[in-house]
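Obj.: predict assembly geometry.
Materials: sequence records (below).
Method: joint structure prediction, all chains together.
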Amino acid sequence: MSALYGVDETHDPALRSWVESANDPACEFPIQNLPFGRFREAADLDWRIGVAIGDQVLELRRIGLINHAEMNRLMRLKPETRLELRRALSAGLRAGSGQQARWRDALLPMARVQLGLPCQIGDYTDFYVGIHHATTVGKLFRPDQPLLPNYKWVPIGYHGRASTIGVSGQDFVRPMGQVMAAGAEAPQLMPSQRLDFELELGIFIGRPNAQGQAIPIEQAEEHVFGLALFNDWSARDLQAWEYQPLGPFLSKNFASTVSPWMVTMEALAPFRRAFERPAGDPPPLPYLDSAAQRAQGAIDVDLEVRLQTAAMRAAGQPAVCISRSNYADAAYWTVAQLVSHHSVNGCSLSNGDLLGTGTLSGPRPDQAGSLLELSAGGRTPITLPNGEQRRFLEDGDSVELHGRCERAGYRAIGFGACRATVLPAASTVANETD
Amino acid sequence: MSALYGVDETHDPALRSWVESANDPACEFPIQNLPFGRFREAADLDWRIGVAIGDQVLELRRIGLINHAEMNRLMRLKPETRLELRRALSAGLRAGSGQQARWRDALLPMARVQLGLPCQIGDYTDFYVGIHHATTVGKLFRPDQPLLPNYKWVPIGYHGRASTIGVSGQDFVRPMGQVMAAGAEAPQLMPSQRLDFELELGIFIGRPNAQGQAIPIEQAEEHVFGLALFNDWSARDLQAWEYQPLGPFLSKNFASTVSPWMVTMEALAPFRRAFERPAGDPPPLPYLDSAAQRAQGAIDVDLEVRLQTAAMRAAGQPAVCISRSNYADAAYWTVAQLVSHHSVNGCSLSNGDLLGTGTLSGPRPDQAGSLLELSAGGRTPITLPNGEQRRFLEDGDSVELHGRCERAGYRAIGFGACRATVLPAASTVANETD
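Observations (raw structure tokens):
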């Protein structure tokens, strides 16, 4: 693994770009990052492949490093080839590069383009790697046994809906659904009263495996292209009523939001961490274990959730932070473990598949990745700086996820924002005339 | 609904085709059926759209009724346009038609072509409409409460894996996975010992809805193109260990098999039945109820499961019937109810989506749609005519699903076969050297 995604000259913190905005210390897209996304200049034009640099987007085909505009095709490249591409981008964007005159024509201000889903998404799987999330939520239902017996053995996951995944900036209507009130004899169709966000990372699969052929853990990261922020919106009241015995369905599939930039595994190389289980926990089964995983299976990403209510927006107030967490602290399973587990039964992962990590709550209550946790199941609302309170999301609320990798001796890199806004529920479809 | 998919002259049992094999009373594809599928003459050629007639495939573009070869595009047609297409096909294939000379050139023997997945599948959702299945399986886990409280209110469903759906004729390897033996302290990675089939129908979505816009039940069938046979292979031992709390995952996503022909809603019109709930059951919520649904929401399809073991194949013995069931008798929810429920929260259904019904077991034990039920959870094996016994599937077993609609006064139509074979598990991927 370390051979695949090692630290090299592209991570040198002294590197500066001729794109001046990239050198601002607050910029999330310095020359050490170089994430990939899709953009277009107008809704009737085709998506193109871009690389974020400072406040600009570099159009990849235009500089001649690739000869097509299909992100999914680019994501299939072998890791060695991707590494070459990264090195060429880094060299060409470096201050003093001879490419500057030519590449400048391939830059567009990010503020002037539309950013799309990072790729054409194949199947979407959501995992449940956040052990603090699983424990806290489990306690709400099973105070005496918060974690089920399989949790430390099986990377729990389930399939989700790919067609309703949107990109940052989307609005979605509050879902309608069946709600069974406590003590009621029958459920009612109504707008969800317990709408929530889930702070996750999304893992994009680049290289597929053939059906029937499991991916050994040593090769698992070769199949991964990069990470993005991911919000798996959840309607807790619909979920509570519908989810037995086959899992979440309408409570999750109305909308999910992903950030537009895929931060590559290459860019994340300096931010790897040892991955160790707490003493006393069972060791992973051999197909989920490797020396490389133990040495640096974790990825250190600081995460943040910000909320802006309609009242705040009207008053010109920016979103406020309501939770901070960290991927490496939150996750019980690594990226490679998820990929190996997903394929151990012969399941074929496809180019463009998206794996959600599950909610990445930290160990402390204020590090929770959902309102369900922050409000203790809706019992104790959180209070915002303007005095508003929230147990769950209200119409007009915008939720923004942020992610940032920092480490001494390296230039910090960021993920951009993953933002979406809740619209009021559509009027009921119930058929009154029949 | 009856206006959409009514009985007309294309269902006249007296109709005969100039394709002589279609007039054989045992033929599943008479002129009254006209199902759609994709075929090609060699693996390196593109898929084309075909209509099954007798033992032949009629290439649709070649006869000029459409000017492209994209099944998904055809499936988006409005129901009125699809009805026109059906009428034109019926007229042209009728004995004495003036098209005979020209259309004959567009026929290919079905035995000489490769049949593909009927369309490019979008998202795949599996439902759980078989109330006898849910009750029998529930009893194995909860003798005192076989049906969970939500069952008669919520059409229970969950998302599945689209990338591993194959077409009839496929082989797949027995899945590896974590199995927790009774009394064991740790799970083990091993080939599934409780591999099973599930007798289902697949519902293909033709017309999408926009995200945020629920589909009213009166319009639900407009979004449906047709039905096919569907086998949702299941590894019961993996499922038992992994499925809490988020539902089935690796126990289901290694393979599913669909039959190559989509029998259209138009073709099924004569086989509609009243849909009535047992006395004492709660009425469906208004968004799941309509007069048309009550009058003819059900579809009468006789279903059959056949098994051929490796020993039978070696001895030249054909597959034997191990279960018979009927869709209308098995299902607690109609096609329209599934579509409306799936979208009530604003979830967008896409062109090419596949909805599995769930296992369609009849009320009697010998009508079960899975070995889990037929063998009472693996306790009492079934005995085959050659003396072999089965609790669950063994390597080399082929399972074949069949479906047939019959009604007095109408020509019977069939679904073709949905067949697949279990191969031995791949060698373990466990990493022993690390």
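Conclusions so far: The first helix of chain A runs from residue 71 to 75.
To do: check interface contacts against the pulldown list.
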